[in-house]
């Protein structure tokens, strides 16, 4: 039902053919895809067999078959991923890779990094990212800082929207279901002479659930609305020169509950992503170059109509980024990737008082500049063996320079065995919000990390069965966490810096000396014609290892130590495909002291799809079939049993 390509040092699950394919065609598709799938999150197109890091690839067919509305639901089915959400669709959503912090993941859409400088750690909130017109998702696990910057301690999620292949083409999705949910999406594009273009739009609406968990008395539904549009155009100026522009805009409105009770709070979120680039090839195509400018703007506002002053919070974060990237084929066996980047970030935020008698405070503001240079060399000394190594230098306007290293190798043996190993480093300056907001601490030190992994995968019976596993290990020093303040307290950081008389605050950000994460990710996939079985299991130990801390040895918050996914699907010869999926997540803890436990849970989904023609399919699904009640964040609700049905067209 949910087939994802895991061709990595962790695992490999082969992609099944479409529901209309025969058994022979399916087997051929698996074998072909295993050797030809190209990954672009490596900053240069590489096949999966050339990448030392752990990779999962979700192509358009996989995304369609899964039928998931949000990107986080898709990613949860891959190894090493955990998600915590403060309620239903649209509420604050944090995604973690291998137990790293959510802001340790770099999220990229069409080549643009999606971090929000006004968010807590300068990371990306997945709440408003819907599947939309996405054509492909690539997940690289483990440190990826050489090519993607210091923030990529946990990994990289690379999202690519659809690009036109025909003179004129289009697609649409329309579905409806539980809680008055309606999701509608359409896109059109084409290629005419030197011009290729595509535009798409989506509208999603649901009455939702109470973000305040039902177990704690939450009854009022908190709805969510999201409208997004995306577009891209590429113009060939000459045989070796092209210009391109891309854009993405999302506007969401979500209702939520504040202070552990049902309330009328709601938030508005607007995100804009823009990109303009010039591509040119030299030396007969061996020397490829790209010069680009990217801009992101995230605007967030919270309101409560029951307050005397309705607006309770406002924030805005902007990134302006110039970059150059080059790729040079020294020979058939040696390739170099190199580049330079300059990123300027700024944010502002404030939390006005509910009383009109209290003046609206000035915005808290902050800014930073990061200039970087990097290079990576990839060599194939003998057939089947690929080695690479790289270095990156970051110059931060507040914290100075930092040099990072990475290296890895992959060895493809004639026996169908693939061996992988890699090492990487990361460096992340504190987020602007962590430094300068009302909870800020200008004394914070940068976070530093290093990690390694080693794994094996085995292909059997002509790739009909593939099994694999990887061990990973990562150490982070000066990790930044939020520290709550109690009353009374003698902690000087529990007062607003510079306030006179001293004004208490709820908490502040501080460094912990050390955290460690290690574990195993394993998966297997079996393809027998129309029947496909696959599954994965992750054991992730993420702990506070600060020797002088009262939390030494405690689990890092909201990170289950065990999780597993399994799915089965069968494609009948007359266009019908049925599937079932199971997700199990072990217990976790909501806070650093491990005083609040989040229980384990099991979710079961069913899906069906029937082809009316080559272009049009009907689909239906039942999610959380047994109406499991669970929490990924303490006191916040989660979606119960949900039924959806719709129609999809690809022309």
TrEMBL record:
Residues 210-625 form the TonB-dependent receptor-like beta-barrel domain. It is a multi-pass membrane protein. A motif (TonB box) lies at residues 36-42. GO terms for cellular component: cell outer membrane. The keyword Acyltransferase does not apply. One of its GO terms (biological process) is monoatomic ion transport. It comes from the Bacteria. Pfam families: Plug, TonB_dep_Rec_b-barrel. InterPro entries: Beta-barrel_TonB (IPR000531), Beta-barrel_TonB_sf (IPR036942), Plug_dom (IPR012910), Plug_dom_sf (IPR037066), TonB-dep_rcpt-like (IPR039426), TonB_box_CS (IPR010916), TonB_rcpt_CS (IPR010917). Its main location: membrane. Residues 48-156 form the TonB-dependent receptor plug domain. Residues 1-23 form the signal peptide. It is found in: Cell outer membrane. Keywords: Cell outer membrane, Ion transport, Membrane, Signal, TonB box, Transmembrane, Transmembrane beta strand, Transport. This is Vitamin B12 transporter. It comes from Sphingopyxis italica.
């Amino acid at each position: 039902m949910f087939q994802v390509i895991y061709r990595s040092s962790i695992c490999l699950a082969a992609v099944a053919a479409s529901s209309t394919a025969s058994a022979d065609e399916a087997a051929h598709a698996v074998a072909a895809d295993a050797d030809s799938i190209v990954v672009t999150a490596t900053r240069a197109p590489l096949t999966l067999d050339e990448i030392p890091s752990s990779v999962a690839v979700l192509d358009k067919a996989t995304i369609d078959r899964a039928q998931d509305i949000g990107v986080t639901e898709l990613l949860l089915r891959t190894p090493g991923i955990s998600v915590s959400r403060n309620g239903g669709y649209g509420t604050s959503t944090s995604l973690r890779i291998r137990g790293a912090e959510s802001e340790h993941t770099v999220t990229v859409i069409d080549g643009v990094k999606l971090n929000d400088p006004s968010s807590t750690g300068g990371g990306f909130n997945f709440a408003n990212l819907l599947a939309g017109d996405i054509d492909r998702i690539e997940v690289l696990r483990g440190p990826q800082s050489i090519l993607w910057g210091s923030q990529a301690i946990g990994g990289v999620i690379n999202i690519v929207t659809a690009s036109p292949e025909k003179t004129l083409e289009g697609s649409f999705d329309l579905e409806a279901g539980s809680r008055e949910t309606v999701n509608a999406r359409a896109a059109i594009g084409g290629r005419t002479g030197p011009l290729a273009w595509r535009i798409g739009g989506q509208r999603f609406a649901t009455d939702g659930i109470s973000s305040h968990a039902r177990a704690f008395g939450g009854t009022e539904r908190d709805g969510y609305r999201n409208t997004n549009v995306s577009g891209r155009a590429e113009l060939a100026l000459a045989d070796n020169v092209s210009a391109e522009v891309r854009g993405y805009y999302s506007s969401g409105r979500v209702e939520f509950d504040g202070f552990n009770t049902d309330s009328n709070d709601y938030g508005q979120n607007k995100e804009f992503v823009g990109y303009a680039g010039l591509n040119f090839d030299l030396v007969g195509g061996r020397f490829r170059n790209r010069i680009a400018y990217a801009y992101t703007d995230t605007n967030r506002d919270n309101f409560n109509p029951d307050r005397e002053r309705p607006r309770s919070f406002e924030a805005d974060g902007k990134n302006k980024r110039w970059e150059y990237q080059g790729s040079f084929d020294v020979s058939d066996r040696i390739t170099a990737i190199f580049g330079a980047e300059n990123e300027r970030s700024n944010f502002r935020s404030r939390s006005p008082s509910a009383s009109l008698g209290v003046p609206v405070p000035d915005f808290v503001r902050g800014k930073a500049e990061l200039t970087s240079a990097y290079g990576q060399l990839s060599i194939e000394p003998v057939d089947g063996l690929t080695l690479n190594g790289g270095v990156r230098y970051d110059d931060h306007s507040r914290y100075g320079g930092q040099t990072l290293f990475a290296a890895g190798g992959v060895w493809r043996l004639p026996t169908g065995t693939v061996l992988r190993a890699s090492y990487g480093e990361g460096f992340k300056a504190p987020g602007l919000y962590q430094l300068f907001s009302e909870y800020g601490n200008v004394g914070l030190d940068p976070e530093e990390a290093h990690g390694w992994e080693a794994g094996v995968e085995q292909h059997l019976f002509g790739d009909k069965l593939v099994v694999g596993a990887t061990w990973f290990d990562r150490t982070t020093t000066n990790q930044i966490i939020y520290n709550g303040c109690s009353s009374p307290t003698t902690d000087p950081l529990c007062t607003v810096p510079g306030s006179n008389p001293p004004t208490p605050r709820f908490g502040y950000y501080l460094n912990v000396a050390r955290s460690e994460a290690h574990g195993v990710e394993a998966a297997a996939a079996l393809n027998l014609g129309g029947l496909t079985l696959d599954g994965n299991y992750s054991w992730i130990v993420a702990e506070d290892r600060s020797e002088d801390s009262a939390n030494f040895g405690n689990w890092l918050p909201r990170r289950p130590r065990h999780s597993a996914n399994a799915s089965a699907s069968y494609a009948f010869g007359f266009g019908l495909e049925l599937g079932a999926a199971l997700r199990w997540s072990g217990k976790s803890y909501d806070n650093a002291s491990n005083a609040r436990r989040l229980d384990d849970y099991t979710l079961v989904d069913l899906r069906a799809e029937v082809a009316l023609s080559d272009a049009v399919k009907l689909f239906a699904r039942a999610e959380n079939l047994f109406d499991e009640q669970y929490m990924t964040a303490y006191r916040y609700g989660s979606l119960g049993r949900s039924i959806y049905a719709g129609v999809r067209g690809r022309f």
